[in-house]
Design brief:
It comes from Lepeophtheirus salmonis. This protein is α+β, with helices and mostly antiparallel strands. It has helices spanning 2-8, 19-29, 36-58, 107-115; strands at 63-71, 77-85, 95-100.
């Protein structure tokens, strides 16, 4: 639940390293906070589940794929793959499929990124 809250609210995992956050969790939730590394490991399990659910929703419908460069909260350039239904009524936000720091953008790196 904590991991889902962090991801859905776009809260950086580094927040768990803040002593005030740890104190708050201990006081109000009577829980010790997982480490940043543990959250990253758990994220892989959640990611696979989310991708599986997206595949169920998308099925064999027409989709669009967008590749975008953005900056993370530390100001580092990140490349993202976004995907959504191509149905003429773009009502929702696209799915974030992958995000990675590609230092040098070339055909090989781009292909690896898209296939990951």
């Amino acid at each position: 639940d904590l991991l889902k809250m962090f991801v859905s609210c776009n809260i950086p995992f580094s927040t768990v390293e803040n002593s005030n956050f740890s104190k708050f969790m201990k006081k109000y939730a009577d829980r010790t906070v997982l480490s940043r590394r543990t959250l990253h490991r758990l994220m892989e399990v959640v990611r696979k589940d989310v991708i599986s659910k997206i595949k169920e929703i998308i099925g064999y419908k027409d989709i669009f794929i967008a590749v975008d460069e953005t900056k993370n909260n530390q100001g580092l350039s990140m490349t993202t793959i976004l995907m959504g239904l191509l149905n003429g009524r773009f009502l929702g936000r696209p799915y974030l499929i992958n995000m990675i720091d590609i230092k040098v953008v070339n055909a090989m790196n781009f292909c690896k990124f898209c296939c990951s």
